Amino acid sequence: MDRRKFLGNTLLTSAALAGGGSLVYAHLMPEGYVPLMAQDPNPFEMFNKNKEMVVLNDKPWNIESLAHLLNDNVTPNSAMFIRNNGLIPENIDVDSWKLTIDGESVEKPKSYSLAELKNKFPQHTYQLVLECGGNGRKEFNPPAKGNQWGLGAVHCAKWTGVRLKDVLEDVGIKGDAVYIGYHSADIHLSRSPDKEPISRGCPIEKALQDETLLAFKMNDEDIPLAHGYPLRLVAGGWPASVSGKWLHTISVRNKVHDGAKMIGTSYRVPCKPVAPGEKVADEDMCIIESMPVKSLITYPKTGAVLKMGETLSINGHAWAGELEVEKMEYSIDFGATWKECQLKKPVNRLSWQQFSAQVNFPEKGYYEVWAKATDSKGESQPMVLPGWNPKGYLNNACHRIAIKVS
Ligand SMILES: Nc1nc2c(c(=O)[nH]1)N[C@H]1C(S)=C(S)[C@@H](COP(=O)(O)O)O[C@H]1N2
Ligand SMILES: [Mo]
Prior knowledge:
Layout: H1 2-9, H2 43-46, E1 54-58, E2 61-64, E3 82-83, E4 98-102, E5 110-113, H3 114-120, E6 123-131, E7 154-163, H4 164-171, E8 179-184, E9 201-203, H5 204-207, E10 213-218, E11 221-222, E12 232-234, E13 247-253, E14 268-270, E15 285-287, E16 294-299, E17 304-306, E18 312-319, E19 325-331, E20 339-340, E21 342-343, E22 353-359, E23 365-375, E24 399-405
Parallel strand pairs: 4-13, 17-24
Antiparallel strand pairs: 1-2, 2-3, 4-5, 6-7, 7-10, 8-9, 8-13, 10-11, 10-12, 14-15, 16-18, 18-22, 19-20, 19-23, 21-22, 23-24
Bound molecules: the ligand Nc1nc2c(c(=O)[nH]1)N[C@H]1C(S)=C(S)[C@@H](COP(=O)(O)O)O[C@H]1N2 and molybdenum atom (MO).
The site of molybdenum atom (MO) has 6 residues, from loops.
């Protein structure tokens, strides 16, 4: 249905066919036929993603990674989840791309070309954890609406750019600044130019951290289109929805930013725990800030089989929002006892940390290896699902893999 309308209205007369040529025998085409060139593209090829990744939605594109694909210390593009609220911008012209800083709390709005940003300010590179606030949503009961993310909506790539704080200093911000909000070039699903798919932000204190970047490189290359080319706000350790892709404006606000997906149940959780399914009044909802402590076993893949007497080497990553992970443990007896893993320091603040352990099993049979991280404030991952909330955010329950010893 949809597709036929699309074809009738636009495709046959437009350059939507790759190469831009016109469809010569269009009038002879069977009704409802979709020319090969216009058939749904293969997302794995289009975005250079590992074919094991899971497509949760194609309008907009939402693609999830898997624990065992995230084994690299620096996540490559091929294993990075994609979370879009709208449609990826079309026809990006980098030469005319501008970043504008405006809002109630700037002395005078100012715009920079990408070349100006790159030349005027020192560049910094950090490895930063971006985890979707809804990662792990699919476990909640009653279920929460939205993409049913399993474990794979997290990555820790290397981002290069200039510090937002250096740019804000150059513009000059007023003393009443409390928040920043981003505006981006992606397109609302309705295609209405008056609507933004998402426009979130963070308190000014987070915006002014050294690691909060206006990034133009990811893993030493131009940022892939799906991840925000040509410019992205990157605020590690907070829900990744704060890290606006395809960034063109930062508004410095004298109040909490009120853009799309800042209010209601979006990226907000009950300020105090509630019973599963309970209705929560708007004023009792709080904006998610630093993400909770969490970890993933990225090797081996769940379901691994080994021989009796073999030692299993496990490894993975742990992260804790604004904090550092201080301790990493594993259990093979459903949490009755825990043993400590080796745990590395982060390469920089807000990066994930590597852990590893050598695991021995006492006899043949079925086991689960559970992993549990504890942050520098002594907060540990819960063994089972944490507090229910209407949109299913912040599931940081222990990751577990199945092991068979035969
Ligand atoms: N402009 C824009 N920025 C955005 C989004 C979006 O839809 N549009 N999605 C946000 C959300 S909810 C997440 S989880 C991350 C996902 O980043 P990724 O697609 O690079 O993994 O981007 C954030 N930034
Ligand atoms: Mo997200």
